[in-house]
Amino acid sequence: MKISVIVPAYNSEKFISETIDCLLSQTLSDIQIIIVNDGSTDGTGAIIERYASKNPNILTIHQDNSGVSAARNNGINHAEGKYIMFLDSDDLLSADSLEQVYNKLEETNADMAIWRILRFGYGGDEFNPVADSLAKDNLINCFDKRLLWNFLLGNKCFRTDIIKKSEIRFPPLRYSEDGAFIMQLIYKQHPKITGVFSAVYHYRRHTPKEGFSVSQSISGELVSHFSQSLDIVYNAAQQADADEPYLQEIIYKTYFSLINEFYRILWRADNDTVKLIGTKCRELEEKMTAETLKKCREMQTDIGEPIFDTKEIVQKPVISVIAKNPSDEFISSVYAQSMPIFEIISAKSINKENAVFLPSKQFGKSAKKVSKGKIILKFKGNENLDSRLFKIISMLKKKRMISLMPDFLIKFGAALLLKLK
After folding, report:
1. Which residues lie below 8 Å from residue 280, measured CB to CB, with a gap of 6+?
2. pTM for this entry
3. First-last CA distance in the chain
4. What is the Cα gyration radius of the chain?
5. Which end of the chain has fewer CB within 10 Å, C or N?
6. H runs (alpha helix) in 97-147
7. Measured CA distances, 117 to 105, 152, 181, 338, 386 (Å)
C-alpha cells in the first residue's frame, strides 16, 4: 500500500459516509483505509461494515470507547502503507490530494508532507494562511516556528517507519493531542519536511445546532489537557536543544490559544473553568520575557486586561446589548462573539449569567437605565451578527480620535469594516 489513511470514528453516522466516499474517490490507487470505531452508540459501526464488505482496501477496527488518541494509536499498529495520514470522520480531502502528496514525497524523498487547509461549514469557507505558507515551501526546517501554529493533523502525511521507530504515540488527551504527537515526532526524528500546495484538506466547522466540536468547546478538562499538551511540546523542544526565542514562541502560542480558543468563548463554561484559564495564563506570564509579554498585551487590546471571573465580568461589561425580543439565532450569534466582555438585556429569558431580563411593559424605559456597559448597542434581534463585531467595536472605541463618537456610528463603522474585510 502507498498510503494508510487512519480514520477514528465516534458517533459519526451523519458524516462518515461522505468521508469514506471522498477516500474511495481518490485518484491515487493502492491506499489502505483504516476506520477505528471508538465505541460508537449510533449507526457508525453498521455504516463502516457495509463499506468494508464492498471494498477490500477498507479495514474496520471496533474498540471500546477510549478516545481519539487510542483510536489513532490502534490504527498505527495496523498500518501497512509506506506513509500514514490521519483523517477525521467528518472531514474531507480534495479528489487528487493523496496522489499529489504521495508524488511529492517520492520526488523529494521527504519523510513528512504538509498541505493546505480549507475550513468549510459554519462561518464560511476560508483557507488557513499558516498552512498555505508552509505548503508553498519545498523544504521546511524542523524548528520553523510556523509549525507551532499549525497543529492540525489532517493536512500532514508521515513516512510510516519514522513513526513506528520513534515509538511516539498520541497522548491520552482530548485537546491538542495532535500537536503533542507531531512536535515530539519532529524534535526526535528530525524528518525531512516538504510542502504540497496542490493538495487540500477540508476541515468542517459545525454549527451550534449540530453541536460544537472539541475545538469549539470549553471545559476545565479541556483547558487542563491543552496545557498538558503544550507542556509536552515545550519539554520536548528543550530536550532537542531549542533556543530561547523558539521556547518563548511556544509560551506565546500557549497563552495566545488560552485567550483566543478558550477565554473568548467563556460563556460556554462555568466560572471555575474561567478561573483555571486565568491560573494557566499567570503561570505562563512568569516564564515570559518582556518582549513576549508585550506581544500578549498587543494581541488582546480589545479586551484589555482579562477578567478571569464571570461574576466580575457581569458587573463590568464593556458592551451592553439591548434587544427586546431576540430570535434564538440572534442570541447564538451574540454568544459566538470573540469579545466576551458584554451583557445582553432583553424581555426574553436567557439562561446565561450575563443576561438581564426585563418585563416587556417596562423594557423601553428601563433597558438603558440598567445597562452597565461603556458602549450601548440596540438591535431588533432578528439579524445574525458577525462574530468579530464586538471586537472591532471595542477596538474602535479605544482609539482617542473617535472616543466621543456616538455608539450607533461606531456600530456602523464596524459593520462597514467587516464588509470590506
Report:
1. 223, 227, 258
2. 0.89
3. 45
4. 23
5. C
6. 97-108, 129-135
7. 18, 9, 19, 22, 22
φ, ψ at 167 (rounded to 5°)? 65, 15
Main-chain dihedrals φ then ψ at residue 281, nearest 5 degrees: -65, -40
Residues β-bridged to residue 357: 346
Strands (E), 39-181: 58-63, 83-86, 92-93, 112-121, 126-127, 156-159
Is 414 within 8 Å of 339 (Cβ atoms)?
no
Closest CA to 153 of 120, 122, 175: 175
Provide the grid cell at 30.
493502492
Q: Which residue, among 108, 117, 53, has the nearest Cα to 88 in the 3D structure?
A: 117
SS3 state at 298: helix
CA dihedral 49, 45, 7, 163 (to 10 degrees): -90
Q: Decide if 324 contacts 381 (C-beta within 8 A).
A: yes
What band does 37 get if pLDDT is binned at 50, 70 and 90? Answer: very high
pLDDT tens digits, one per residue of 321-340: 999 999 999 999 999 899 99
